[in-house]
Structure formats: structure tokens, C-alpha cells
Amino acid sequence: MQPDKLIIFDTTLRDGEQCPGASLNIREKLEIARQLSLLQVDVIEAGFPVASPGDFQSVEQIAREIKGSKIAGLARALEKDIEAAAKALEKAESPRIHIFLSTSKTHREHMVRKAEEEIIDMAVKAIRFGKKFCDDIEFSPMDASRTEPQFLARAIAAVIAAGATTVNIPDTVGYSVPEQFGGLIHYLKQNVANIERAVISVHCHNDLGLAVANSLAAVKAGARQVECTVNGIGERAGNAAMEEIVMALKTRKDFFGIETRVDSRHILACSKLVSSLTGFFVQRNKAVVGKNAFAHESGIHQHGFLKKKDTFEIMDPKDVGWEDSELVMGKHSGRNALLHKTKEMGYELSPQELDRLFDEFKVLADEKKEIFDEDIATLIQKQTLSDESLNAYTLGKIKCAFETGAVPQATVELIGRDGKKHAATADGDGPIDSIYNAIDKIAGLSCKLLDYQVQSKTRGKDAQGEVTVRVLHENREVLGKGSGVNTVEASGCAYINAINKLLMKSKAGPVAGGEIPGP
Ligand code: KIV
Ligand code: ZN
User: Fold this and answer.
1) CA 174 to centroid of ligand 2, rounded, Å
2) What atom of ligand 1 comes closest to residue 100's alpha carbon?
3) Which residue puts its alpha carbon closest to atom 2 of ligand 1?
4) What is the dihedral of CA 240, 246, 248, 252, to 10 degrees?
5) Is the CB–ligand 1 distance for residue 140 below 6 Å?
6) CB-ligand 1 contact for 11 (6 Å cutoff)
7) Can you tell me which atom of ligand 1 is nearest the CA of 168?
8) How many A from CA of 228 to the centre of ligand 2?
């Protein structure tokens, strides 16, 4: 059996743009409309033409340029609105006029000030008027979810009889809950005699965070059009998010048995465009399009994911335009994930090297929230540089005191190749100088520091610094490197690295790498 089709009616440019702070100019609206048509949404609601000359022009331009998607213009149940919408849509390949009128008791009494029969009469007249310009007429009884069901059913039967081809049931204030909203659609299917002559649509707001759930409950109950917006932007808490509706139906086709014609691979690009043009940032943990939507950090999740993706991933990130899932390296990551990451970065580590790297990685992960590839590369380099079999000394600890106006002083403890601890205290012109003087004392050398540089190797405030020193001793010049989040400690490591090279060279011949020929 062929799966049913769901019509995706995108209202990013109308309801989405209506939300405070999201206003877009004509050029920006066109850009979004082009992206929506690439996505192959069925209907693009381009604006509310009577609302302003700018709105009129953008609907007109989108109608002229965009092919392949139906273009809708919004209108109140008033002749001047319908005329404006019809005029703006004149050049559309496939136009739709979307007429709305409030039906709930509170709206009837306080907004439109009309009785039930007057509302029905006004809606019917508006539809007949719209039909003069356009065959495709959608009618929305505003605040439908809070309208008395019997009256709603009567109003809907009347507008369908007058020629409405789509009847949209808005949950205007986001008041419904899924079971109830699905029940309302079911009720209308049972109680509106001519309901089969129109497509049932739903339009849910997200005031209780239920817009997508309500829309899907309605689809399950028989709705065949969903009105939604990119990233869920819209009045107040927004509308149902288009990307969530599309991916829920695609991922849970087993449950819904319904397809959309949306080319989901363009979802992320569209989300980014809407976010950058409206200035509405997408939260990191937002479903489908948030930065974390396909990022795994927990060690257990990473372990399962590396064995088989579907252990912790229900969608393929490529299906929505992401390049791939991301293994975020952080304090929750396990040894397996680190191994995978180092392989991906092109390193072949022995099990012992991996063990050492993992220990250092865990220490760093406690200091730094997110570990980037550069951080891991720096740790690996640091390991190579501090290969103990080549070193005369490794760093034990550094204590360094600095106070304005006082002479800086440092105490350094180094560990010799035999495991013995050697400590010395020295003054200096600055804290780093005092550390270096203390190291010289232990090593029994008198070195001259020719150059000292610190570079940020990774990103963020807690980035790792890489310190490079050029050290001269008895006409020999060597380069030393050290890195870490603590740049004072990294400075000590860089100097020890240089000292080791000087000592090794004198005892065991040249040490590979890092040597600068003397003058
Ligand atoms: O939320 C609403 O009721 C609307 C209508 C105009 C469909 O946006
Ligand atoms: Zn709305």
C-alpha cells in the first residue's frame, strides 16, 4: 500500500516572521523562500499582504520567483484583505488564499463581537469572495482548539460547502495537549458530513512546549497538512518546528505510515539561514538542528556508538545535512573513543602510548570543558618530546612566588632518570627567569635564554599554551618545547626539554630533532 502524503505548509515567513525581533526585509525573505523551495516544502506562506506595503511586495516577489511550491497569502475574512492577497499572488504558479476568522467564545465576545451565526455568515461570504480569485482557499477558525466542538463542526461544514479546500485547525494559544487535540480532529472527521471534500490541516503553537506533539497526534488522527516553521520560530513560544515534524515522520514511518516530500538533506542549511537572518540562535540541544543533536560525549554512549551507530543514534546526521556524528572528547569519554579519535587523526599509538595519553587526557579533561583535536595532538607531541628513555630529568614540581616589588623566587624539583628527586631554589628577574635559574642549578649548567615564546595552541579561554625556548650553552643552541593549560608550568617543561637535549648530547651523542646548529 502506498504511504499517505502529508502536506508541509511552512509559515516561517508569516507566523515565524511575526514574532518580536524576527522581522526580515524583502531580500532576506526571498532568500529563505528559495531555501524552502529547495527543501520542497509543499506550501510557503509568504506573508500577510494587507499588513504593510513591505509584506505585500515580498509576497508578490516570492509569488513571481518561486516555482514548485504553492505560495499562500494570509487574509482576514474581509474583502480588502482578500483582494490584497489575491493581487499579491497574481503571478504565482500555484496560489492559495488563507482566510482566518476567530471562532472561540472569548474571541467572539471580546475581539470580533459577533454571535455564532454571524461568524459563520462572515466566513462563508469571505470564502465565496476569495473563490472569485483563486480555487485554492484555506480557512482557519482562529482559536479552534478553545472553540465549542459543535459550533466548530458547524462552521467547518459551512466553509467547506462554500468552497474551502483546506480547513486548518489552529491551536492558536498552545493550550491543547496531544490526546485532546488528536481527539478534536477525530471528532471533526466524525461530525462534519462533508469533511472528505477538504484537507484537514493543523497549526500548533508551542506555549506549553507541545506544538510538535500536538501536530503529530493530529496527523495520527487524520490531519494531512501540518503548518510549521523552521527552527520552530513564531509568535510567543513559536510554532511546531518543521524539521522535527519531518524527521519524526521519516524516522517513525513504522508508526505513522506517512511521508512528506521534503528533501531533508537541506534542513540544516535552512535552519542556519533562518537563524542568521532572524538573529534567533538555535539552542545547542535543539532536536535535529542543534549543535549537540548528533554529538556524543558519554563514554558508554561513545563505546556503543563506535561498535554500532544505531545503539545511540536514531537518525543519520547526513539525512538532515550534517557531515557526520561527532564524538565530543571530554571528561566522560572513554579509552575506546580516544583510540578512535587518534586513529582518525592519523596517529598509530602502541597500547602503552595510548595508556599514557589517556591518563594525561583525563587530567586535561578535568581542567578543560571540551577537548579539541589540537589538544590531543599537543598531548601526543608532549609525550613524544618527553620520552623518558631520552630524558635526564623530568619535572617533579614547581613552586613560584611573585609579588609586586619583591624579587621573584622559585623552587623547582626535578626527577632524575634514576628516580631521585633534585630540588633547588633561585631568584630571577621574573618568575620564569627564577624557574630557569633553579633548573640550571640542578643541572649544573649555566645557560643563556635566547628566545622565549608562548603561543595559544588550542581554542577557548582555557586553551593550551605552547612555550618554545631557544637556549644557549657553551656555543650550543637548542630548542625546547613544553605545553599545557598552565603556561608557567609549560615554560618550565620547555626549559627542561632544552636542558635534556644539552645533557643527552654531551653524554650520548646527538638527539634527533629540535637542534639548531651553533654559530
Ligand atoms: O495561530 C493562529 O491561529 C494563526 C492563524 C492565522 C492561522 O496564526
Ligand atoms: Zn499562528
Assistant:
1) 9
2) 6
3) 172
4) 150
5) yes
6) no
7) 7
8) 9
Domains of the chain from N-terminus onward: 4-278 (3.20.20.70), 297-384 (no CATH), 388-514 (3.30.160.270)
pLDDT band at residue 250 using 50, 70 and 90 as cut-offs: very high
Q: Is the CB of 322 under 6 A from ligand 1?
A: no
What does the block give as the cell for 191?
461530525
Which residue among 17, 98, 146, 205 has the greatest number of ligand 1 atoms within 8 angstroms of its CB, and so is best to mutate? 205
- Residue 484 burial (10 A CB sphere; 0-12, 13-18, 19+): buried
The answer on pLDDT for 428 being more than 70 is: yes
14 CA distance to ligand 2 centroid (A)?
A: 9
Tell me the CA–centroid distance for residue 257 and ligand 2, in Å.
Answer: 27
Residue 377 has pLDDT above 80, yes or no: no
Give the DSSP letter of residue 235.
S
Per-residue buried b or exposed e for 392-419, using 16+ beta carbons within 10 Å of the residue's own CB: bbebeebebeeeeeeebbbbbebbeeee
Contact yes or no for 234/206 (Cβ under 8 A): yes
Q: Check whether 507 has a pLDDT greater than 80.
A: no
Neighbours of ion ligand 2 (CB under 5 A): 15
Spacing, Cα 232 to ligand 2 middle (Å): 11
Q: What is the pLDDT of residue 2?
A: 57
Is residue 213 within 8 Å of 178, Cβ to Cβ? Answer: yes
Contact 240, 206 (CB under 8 A): yes
Q: Average of pLDDT values for 194-200?
A: 98
Q: Cell 466542538 belongs to which residue?
A: 149
Mean pLDDT of the chain: 90
The confidence band for 113, taking pLDDT boundaries of 50, 70 and 90, is very high
pLDDT > 90: percent of the chain: 68
**Separation CA 205–CA 286 (nearest Å):** 17
pLDDT bucket at 39, cuts 50 / 70 / 90: very high
The CA R_g of the chain, rounded to the nearest whole Å, is: 34
Q: What is the pLDDT of residue 518?
A: 31
Does 142 sit in the ligand 1 pocket, CB within 6 Å?
A: yes
pLDDT, one tens digit per residue, over 54-103 is: 999 999 999 999 999 999 999 999 999 999 999 999 999 999 999 999 99
Among 11, 15, 112, 200, the mutation site with the greatest number of ligand 1 atoms within 8 A of its Cβ is 15
Residue nearest to atom 4 of ligand 1 (CA): 172
Q: How large is the angle between the packed helices 53-65 and 79-88, nearest 10 degrees? A: 40
Question: What's residue 384's pLDDT?
Answer: 63
Average pLDDT over residues 312-326: 88
